[in-house]
């Protein structure tokens, strides 16, 4: 076998991207509902009102997962479905939905992985200041308690936040994500309060979960490469590494923000919102670390002072998502690209796994997201043939295999995504699924990559794949 017998093969989704049912059973709007219904924010005016109707088709979707032979399924809980307005008691019907989903997964032998926050903040909490305010982190801990109490008897694997970088810097910095603010000081405050939410949320979960529970967080660490070894380019690399990676790793793993990050951003904020006790709260023991990886960054010193389109991977904005890095230019990494325009470079994933073996010593690693958007089309016979996705998956899983052989403790891989779905500011224009979804009829058709992945999950050995074109 190429992969260890206990290596976990799963797939991932998130609530707002698949559920729909946004006005049902007491759910209130999240910042993504508001953002989508603000003209000009999302391509084609798309929104998650219906999404792929998973709120009604969840049983059929779990059936698909079982057919695919998935060992595990990573999904997120919609905060405004469980705790409308973000404060007070839980709504029973919201909790019931997730309890039923978890029971069905367990019944089918699929391990549920719960993410508490995948970007859908209750709008009322945003109205009260959102992530730039400390109160949001405190509210998050209450919400974590509610979900922990409801499904903690059945769910062992938990991650607090998905990609806090995106919440902070795309949500409050470049504004390409909800709530769409463009304020660099607010983005830095948001990053800290997301870190704090992880710490408070982890403490809250530990208080209500059985000892066997495993807690962690999913980051989207950036592989940042400098275009040359010139000091200016290396400094650009250091800055972006600070803003993308060490701003989270520092407090999470070492209990401190990096000094160079504080210096780089000193003109924007004095970081006075960080209270002494916060750092100890954030540095909770991790039972696992989730790594999400898609593509690397290539940077250099920008000698001309100009507004460039920043490659943050999630849409272009006049405003950079990177506070204090006006003199950094982003370039397209050479190589083939996906439908997102992201360069395919599996070596980046290998580098990340080595990074966290070093930085998060002793913490088991999981790839909690990796996958590719392709220009998938239904053929005349109704099948969907996606050899490029097979190639991408093969090449990324091959470096995971290599990392394991090199002694890195990587224990599982969650493919993004189970279903074609709502891809944030790109709406429904980008297809990441193993399963094709006709967004009109909601019909689901497993693509050829699904058959390939199924064979891998069953045999733990690579089926044949062509190279990425
Ligand atoms: C990640 C997000 C996920 C999806 C993929 C393509 O950054 O966590 O929801 O949009 O990108």
Task: Please explain how this structure is put together.
- It is a single chain.
- This protein is α/β, with parallel strands linked by helices.
- The protein has a single domain (8-222, 338-459), classed as Alpha-Beta Barrel (TIM Barrel).
- The protein contains 15 helices and 13 strands.
- The strands form 3 sheets. An 8-stranded parallel β-barrel has the order 1-2-3-4-5-7-10-11, surrounded by 4 helices. A 3-stranded mixed beta sheet has the order 6-8-9, with helices on one face.
- Helix 14 links the parallel strand 10 (365-370) and strand 11.
- Helix 7 runs parallel beside helix 9 (184-208) and helix 13 runs parallel beside helix 14 (387-405).
- The longest helix is centred in the middle third of the chain and has 25 residues, at 184-208.
- The protein is globular and about 60 Å long.
- The two termini are 27 Å apart.
- Mean pLDDT is 96; it is low at 305-312.
- Beta-D-fucopyranose (FCB) is lined by residues 14, 17, 162-163, 166, 220, 292, 369, 416, 423-424, 432.
């Amino acid at each position: 076998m190429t992969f260890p017998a206990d290596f976990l093969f799963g797939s991932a989704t998130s609530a707002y991207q698949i559920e729909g049912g946004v006005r049902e059973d007491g759910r209130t709007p999240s910042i993504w509902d508001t953002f989508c219904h603000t003209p000009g924010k999302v391509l084609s005016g798309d929104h998650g009102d219906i999404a792929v109707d998973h709120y009604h088709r969840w049983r059929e979707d779990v059936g698909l997962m079982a057919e695919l032979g998935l060992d595990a399924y990573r999904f997120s809980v919609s905060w405004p479905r469980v705790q409308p307005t973000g404060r007070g008691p839980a709504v029973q019907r919201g909790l019931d939905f997730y309890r039923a989903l978890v029971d069905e997964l367990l019944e089918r032998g699929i391990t549920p992985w719960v993410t508490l926050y995948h970007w859908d903040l209750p709008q009322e909490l945003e109205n009260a200041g959102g992530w730039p305010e400390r109160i949001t982190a405190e509210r998050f801990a209450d919400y974590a308690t509610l979900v922990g109490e409801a499904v903690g008897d059945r769910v062992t694997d938990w991650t607090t936040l998905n990609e806090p970088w995106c919440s902070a810097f795309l949500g409050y910095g470049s504004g390409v994500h909800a709530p769409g603010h463009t304020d660099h000081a607010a983005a830095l405050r948001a990053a800290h309060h997301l870190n704090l939410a992880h710490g408070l949320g982890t403490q809250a979960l530990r208080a209500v979960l059985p000892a066997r529970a495993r807690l962690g967080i999913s980051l989207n660490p950036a592989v940042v490469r400098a275009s040359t070894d010139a000091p200016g380019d290396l400094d650009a690399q250091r800055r972006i590494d600070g803003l993308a990676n060490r701003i989270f790793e520092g407090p999470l793993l070492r209990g401190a923000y990096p000094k160079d990050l504080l210096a780089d951003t000193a003109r924007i904020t004095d970081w006075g919102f960080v209270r002494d006790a916060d750092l100890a709260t954030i540095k909770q023991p991790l039972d696992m670390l989730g790594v999400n990886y898609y593509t690397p960054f290539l940077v250099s010193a920008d000698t001309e002072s100009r507004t460039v389109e920043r490659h943050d991977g999630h849409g272009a904005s006049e405003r950079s998502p990177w506070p204090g890095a006006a003199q950094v230019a982003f370039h397209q990494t050479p190589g083939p690209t996906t439908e997102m325009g992201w360069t395919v470079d599996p070596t980046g994933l290998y580098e990340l796994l080595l990074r966290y073996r070093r930085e998060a010593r002793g913490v088991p690693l999981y790839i909690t997201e990796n996958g590719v958007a392709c220009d998938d089309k239904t053929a005349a016979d109704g099948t969907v043939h996606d050899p490029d996705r097979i190639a991408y998956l093969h090449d990324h899983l091959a470096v995971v295999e290599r990392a394991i052989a090199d002694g890195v403790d990587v224990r599982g891989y969650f493919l993004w995504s189970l279903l074609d779905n709502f891809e944030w500011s790109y709406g429904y224009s980008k297809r990441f699924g193993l399963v094709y979804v006709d967004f009109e009829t909601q019909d689901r058709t497993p693509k050829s990559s699904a058959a390939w992945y199924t064979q891998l999950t069953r045999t733990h050995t690579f089926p044949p794949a062509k190279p990425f074109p």
